[in-house]
Amino acid sequence: MYMCEACQQVIENLSINIELFFSDLDILDDRKKLNQLDKQIICYSLLGLYRKEIAHLVKLPDQKIRDQLTNNIYPRIADLMGLDQGNRSEGSEGNTVRLWQKKVK
């Protein structure tokens, strides 16, 4: 199975079983499985990159990365961690990333 460079860095640098994390995110409910872009975004986020940096690396608009995070990635991670997504405040994306960086270790 192909694994992006960022995912390999997560395994090597952070000692995270990223495939298990992806599997956990995929089996939460009837959502479609994470695609390769979602996995790259997750790994780059775990490595500490900002959304604009990720957009530059994957050669997509910042808005596309934001949409993927907001609509597909953050809700899955919140469900996995048992977090309430109802009262998200400005800047909570960074807090969510820090929380799940701790969770997956």
Task: Walk me through what this model shows.
The protein contains 6 helices and no strands. It is mainly alpha-helical. The chain has one domain (1-18, 36-81, 95-105). The model has no long low-confidence stretch (mean pLDDT 82).
- State the total count of DSSP E strands: 0
Gap from first CA to last CA: 22 Å
Main pleated sheet: none
Q: Which H/E pattern describes the elements?
A: HHHHHH
What fraction, in percent, of the residue positions are helical? 55-70%
Rg, rounded, reads: 13 Å
Q: Quick check: average pLDDT? A: 82
What overall geometry do the principal axes of the alpha carbons give? Answer: globular
| Number of helices, where a helix is a run of at least 4 consecutive DSSP H or I residues | 6
Question: Which terms summarize this structure?
Answer:
105 residues; mainly alpha; single chain; 6 helices
Compact description:
The protein is built from six helices and no strands. With 105 residues, it is mainly alpha-helical. The chain has one domain.
What's the structural blueprint in terms of helices and strands?
Blueprint: H1 5-14, H2 18-26, H3 36-46, H4 51-58, H5 62-81, H6 92-104
Helix pairs in contact: 1-3, 4-5, 5-6
